Each structure stands twice: as structure tokens, then as C-alpha cells.
Amino acid sequence: MDAEKSLQRLKEGNDRYLLAKREIGDISDEVRRYTAEHGQHPFAVVIACSDSREIPEAIFSCGIGELFVIRVAGNVVDDSVLGSVEYAAEHLGCPLVVVLGHSCCGAVAATIAGGAGGYTKTITDQIARAIRGETDARRASCLNAERTAAAVREVLRGSAVSVVSALYDVRTGRVTFFDGENAHP
Fold first, then answer.
1. Helices 120-131 and 137-155, interaxial angle, to 10°?
2. Over the stretch 72-105, which tens digit does the pLDDT of each residue have?
3. What pTM was estimated for this model as a whole?
């Protein structure tokens, strides 16, 4: 599956999610056994926030083995996250990486409010560099997702992997996909 087909599958999965009353990805015993015996073959990497309202497998109607999900507060990247992306691209053959920001993000809100202390500061400092003083939370979330996508693009430069940013609306469930040129709705 190429990146274009992978992105289309995510969009169609999000459309099904918006109509579903419960998760519709395949989490059956058969799929568990198959992936245990034959390995995983995800069609996309999703870098998502740790926020409990953002569940990539549900949002895209995917089951076991379909997505390689990396979750970290504020969907920021460090060497471990970038190494995980490289692994998924090089060893699992994922043709697409989606950086999935979301509305009502606590990490973005904390950054807009002036940052945080402790280890959380490492997250809000990265977001601050991404949003460059933006105070509109939705726009800031988009800028943050796009900055992470740009960092991933740099690591994967020269590969055939496509990288896009997106924003999940926690109120409506809708995902809006962006590319580097239209990442600021």
C-alpha cells in the first residue's frame, strides 16, 4: 500500500468512526493469532498525543496490526520517538506518517499560559518553539503538529515515506489532514 492509499484509508476510517456507536476495527482472536505468527504490517505510523480522548485506532477504525502508534504528550518528538518512526518506516515498510494533534490539548494550553515546570517543561518548551507566541489554541495545535511533522520529514528525507500533520477535534471526532502548505486553518 502506498502513502496515498494509506491516507485515503485513514480518511475513510475516520468517516466510519463518525457514524459508529462502538469501535469497528478488527481486534479478533484470529487477527491476534495471525499477527503473532506473521508479524505486524501497519499501513501508517501515527504520532499522537497521550490525551485519553484521542485514540488513533478508534478514530481511524483500525484494528490489531494496522497502525504503528506512538503516543507522547503534546505529540512532540525526541530521539526515541524519531527512532520509533525510523523503525516503522525502514523495517515495517510504513509508507505514511501522520502527526495527529487535537483540539483542547492540555499541553498546548499550558504552553499558551506560560509553560510548565518539572519534566513537563521539556514538552511545553518544544511546543513554544512551534507556536511562536500563537494564542489561538486550535491554530497553535496545528502549528505544533506541523512542526513535529517537519522534524519527521527531516529524519526521513530521501525516503519514499510521506509525512502529514492532522488535527483531531475532540468534540466532533473529525480529523482534518494538512500538508506543510496548509497547516494553519
1. 100
2. 999 999 999 999 999 999 999 999 999 999 999 9
3. 0.92
